[in-house]
User: What shape does this take?
Amino acid sequence: EPEVTQTPSHQVTQMGQEVILRCVPISNHLYFYWYRQILGQKVEFLVSFYNNEISEKSEIFDDQFSVERPDGSNFTLKIRSTKLEDSAMYFCASGTGFGGYTFGSGTRLTVV
Amino acid sequence: KQEVTQIPAALSVPEGENLVLNCSFTDSAIYNLQWFRQDPGKGLTSLLLIQSSQREQTSGRLNASLDKSSGRSTLYIAASQPGDSATYLCAVRTRGGTGNQFYFGTGTSLTVIP
Assistant: This one.
């Protein structure tokens, strides 16, 4: 079964550093998403991406965050200057439209 | 804004028991509802997807129902096994706005005791 692949599985970074989280969505999917889950809390929507542009973003997705699809297969989330409160599990997902999503296994980001 | 609630927050049952997990949502204008399983520290595994026009979906020992008008869904697990122990998340995709995002509940943590 096709999978969404995320790398790395765990990243530790110092506060103020930039991080890039990487995702390879399912190849025939056109809609891409990032969600995050702070430990013990709900999974929260960050951003959706379609046709090479952001289609929707939440209030969490401020100027510190950016997304990019640099080539035909990768989808990245960049956090420019990490804060302690950015520590969370970040999930990438992809879908074909208004059906279900397929989620990746996540990247655990720890900011120290 | 869509609010999704899951009851109970935690559930512990002996192996072999049938059980029901509940999910309620405040805005009935939805595209679909998806149930996920999450093992500790792991990703989200899709279990069942119910489109807004459907009443239920089944996969093996799992059956999910949807009552859109009352804003409720249930996940029925038959003959529970220790391997079913995990957190079960309900997520709803709403028609408002661009309809892009899922709203998640806080989950039900299930423990099946051998």
Q: What stands out?
A: The mean pLDDT of chain A is 93. The interface with chain B takes residues 6, 31, 33, 35, 41-45, 48, 50, 55-56, 58, 89, 91, 98-106, 108 of chain A (CB under 8 Å). The radius of gyration of chain A is 13 Å. The longest strand of chain A covers residues 43-50.
